[in-house]
Amino acid sequence: MLVKLLSIWLLFIHSSWEMIPDDDSSCYQQCFHQPPEACPNPGSACRCRQLTNCKRAAVCCDINDDNFQDALKCGNFTADSVEALHIRNATLDELNISLPLWRRLRLRYMTITDGHIRSVAGEFAKHSVVSCLNLSSNGIGKFERRALVYLHNLSFLDLSRNNLSEVPSFKMEGPMKLDISENPSMMCSSVQKALNRSDITFIKENSTVCFKSTEYHWFNSTDIIELSQLKRLQEIETECYKNCTCKPHRLDIVMGKSPTFTVAMNCSGAKMLSLPVPLPLNTDTLDVSNNNITSLKELSHESYQHLMFLYADNNQIRSIQPLEGTKFMSNFDTLSLRNNKIKTIETYLLSNIRFYRTDSTRHMNLGLNKLTCDCSTARDFKVWLLTKFEHIRDYEELWCDNMNVRVIDLDETKLCQGEQEWTDYIYYVITVEVLLLVGLIAKVSYDYWVFKTSGYLPWPASKMPKLPCDWLCE
Ligand SMILES: *[C@@H]1O[C@H](CO)[C@@H](O)[C@H](O)[C@H]1NC(C)=O
Ligand SMILES: *[C@@H]1O[C@H](CO)[C@@H](O)[C@H](O)[C@H]1NC(C)=O
Ligand SMILES: *[C@@H]1O[C@H](CO)[C@@H](O)[C@H](O)[C@H]1NC(C)=O
Ligand SMILES: *[C@@H]1O[C@H](CO)[C@@H](O)[C@H](O)[C@H]1NC(C)=O
Ligand SMILES: *[C@@H]1O[C@H](CO)[C@@H](O)[C@H](O)[C@H]1NC(C)=O
Ligand SMILES: *[C@@H]1O[C@H](CO)[C@@H](O)[C@H](O)[C@H]1NC(C)=O
Ligand SMILES: *[C@@H]1O[C@H](CO)[C@@H](O)[C@H](O)[C@H]1NC(C)=O
Ligand SMILES: *[C@@H]1O[C@H](CO)[C@@H](O)[C@H](O)[C@H]1NC(C)=O
Ligand SMILES: *[C@@H]1O[C@H](CO)[C@@H](O)[C@H](O)[C@H]1NC(C)=O
Ligand SMILES: *[C@@H]1O[C@H](CO)[C@@H](O)[C@H](O)[C@H]1NC(C)=O
Ligand SMILES: *[C@@H]1O[C@H](CO)[C@@H](O)[C@H](O)[C@H]1NC(C)=O
Ligand SMILES: *[C@@H]1O[C@H](CO)[C@@H](O)[C@H](O)[C@H]1NC(C)=O
């Protein structure tokens, strides 16, 4: 009898071991998630059941507004009996997490997925210890903004596949994984706030998009922005050169490639003595006005290859020579060098710039530089200026340093006069030289003919002393 009782007792212990194994770590990774097969069988009156293979875990299925409270009650859950709960296929108008039934439990894993929930209301209680909250795939459209602020233990928040327009607020610090993928109405401004925190890791980044709001005007061509692009926006502001500000300038969309941002860097009045090197990735606009930059030589640096707009007014730049052969020279849209220390403008450099009629925006500003004017300024540069004046918008503000006259008013006939006479003189010299040469050849030929026919050398060849070379010839 005793033996029998003992063996039954042992059997009971054994079977209870089998029912709830010690090692149920497979039930909870970061979160608690059960397949549809774990649901109570369709015939059972209670739509909730405690699991036998996982300790202190329960699954509820097919819950709606009418049977919600009853279902949770009939599951006999207490704070001691359940710390992981998965509710599948809940059809609710509103999920109110302030309701007393939630406060009675001390859930660490709360999973409500694959249902239809219109909105989430209320807030979690201050002492909540939820570490993973999965509200995925419910089509939730409204979420009480402060619902999650007291979840200090939260480390995983899955709000994927809903219809949220904002990321709800949650704990202010500590590492967290966040999945907001497949919420097509998510506003970018809200996502950017979450991006601002370095301790948040986004899950399923590639399927996370957000919907642009008006402040993202550079996305004019598209309504949906990928998270990676938004991250790039964030980086642009932080990767900037010291004393400068960086902003996204344009979104370049090339079919088959992921869109890239171009960067506009503004270093106006940053007390610079030379052009900044290197520029941030894809910088196409650089404003270095009001500095003490003396040279453009950094323009040939590799990081300047995307530059198209350069504003360098009010500096000490002396020469445009370093432009020669740079990518900027052939690509630029705007080059502004007003009020610098340029003395000479190499016209041959400028004539390499192609100003097409179609790109009416392409232009240079050169005004308020004091040029050293000479004949070539009047003859070459002035002419270039007058043919390209549409593209040199301040062409009337170019003055000569050595004479009180504007470059476009230079008088070529006056400036180039001296030069003209000198060139004429050169022609006379050349003419005389040619005549002398012809005379010499004629005389030598005549001497040779006389020597051949009469055997003597005419004067002066006969009177000249013999040279060592003559000995050789003889
Ligand atoms: C979800 O629950 C509703 C009842 O609330 C039920 O009619 C429906 O069949 C369930 N769907 C699934 C996929 O189980
Ligand atoms: C809950 O407890 C009641 C009695 O207290 C019991 O009849 C019922 O079967 C229990 N439900 C579950 C799902 O265990
Ligand atoms: C949520 O439930 C709490 C407690 O019952 C109640 O005070 C609150 O008004 C409810 N919120 C909403 C939006 O229904
Ligand atoms: C959350 O629930 C969804 C839908 O059932 C599931 O696909 C996802 O893997 C769950 N997330 C986690 C972290 O378990
Ligand atoms: C919740 O976090 C607190 C510290 O913030 C910690 O002491 C406590 O153990 C955590 N609770 C759980 C259940 O993880
Ligand atoms: C999602 O929300 C937007 C507005 O926020 C609404 O226009 C749209 O119809 C909703 N989509 C679904 C599937 O509920
Ligand atoms: C992100 O943080 C920076 C400063 O760290 C702040 O200037 C900026 O406004 C923040 N952006 C958002 C969207 O909160
Ligand atoms: C996300 O996209 C990037 C490039 O767009 C790719 O390198 C990466 O492997 C993708 N990640 C996943 C998880 O698909
Ligand atoms: C986008 O549109 C806004 C207003 O409609 C305009 O101010 C802005 O310049 C545009 N941005 C681009 C890059 O075209
Ligand atoms: C930034 O500005 C400060 C003063 O405004 C100056 O002392 C410093 O040299 C500048 N840094 C650079 C890199 O130009
Ligand atoms: C750079 O900033 C200054 C003021 O700080 C502003 O006047 C200027 O227009 C900006 N440059 C560009 C290209 O936006
Ligand atoms: C440039 O340097 C001179 C002195 O060398 C100084 O007086 C002037 O303020 C500087 N200009 C700028 C814009 O920093």
Strand content: 15-25%
Quickly count the helices: 11
Annotation, overall tally of beta strands: 21
Query: What is the domain tally?
Result: 3
The radius of gyration over CA amounts to: 43 Å
- What small molecules does the structure contain? 2-acetamido-2-deoxy-beta-D-glucopyranose
CATH homologous superfamily descriptor of the largest domain: Ribonuclease Inhibitor
Widest sheet: strand order? Answer: 1-2-3-5-7-9-10-11
Could you give the distance between the termini?
Answer: 153 Å
Q: Which CATH architecture of the largest domain would you pick? A: Alpha-Beta Horseshoe
Low-pLDDT windows of residues: 10-18
Arithmetic mean of pLDDT = 87
The general outline is rod-shaped
Which structural class is indicated by helix and strand composition? alpha/beta
What CATH first level of the largest domain would be assigned?
A: Alpha Beta
The major β-sheet equals: 8 strands, mixed
Q: Provide the helix percentage.
A: 25-40%
CATH topology of the largest domain: Leucine-rich repeat, LRR (right-handed beta-alpha superhelix)
Characterization of the model:
It is found in: Cell membrane. This is Protein halfway. Its main location: membrane. The chain has 474 residues and is α/β, with parallel strands linked by helices. The protein folds into three domains: 22-172, no CATH class; 250-418, Leucine-rich repeat, LRR (right-handed beta-alpha superhelix), CATH 3.80.10; 419-472. Helices cover 25% and strands 18% of the residues. The chain has an eight-stranded mixed β-sheet. Strands 14-15-16-17-18-19 form a six-stranded mixed β-sheet, with helices on one face. Helix 4 packs across helix 5 (227-238). It is rod-shaped, with a radius of gyration of 43 Å. The N and C termini lie far apart (153 Å). The relative contact order is 0.04. Residues 10-18 have low confidence and may be disordered. The structure holds 2-acetamido-2-deoxy-beta-D-glucopyranose (NAG) (12 copies). One 2-acetamido-2-deoxy-beta-D-glucopyranose (NAG) binds at residues 192-193, 196.
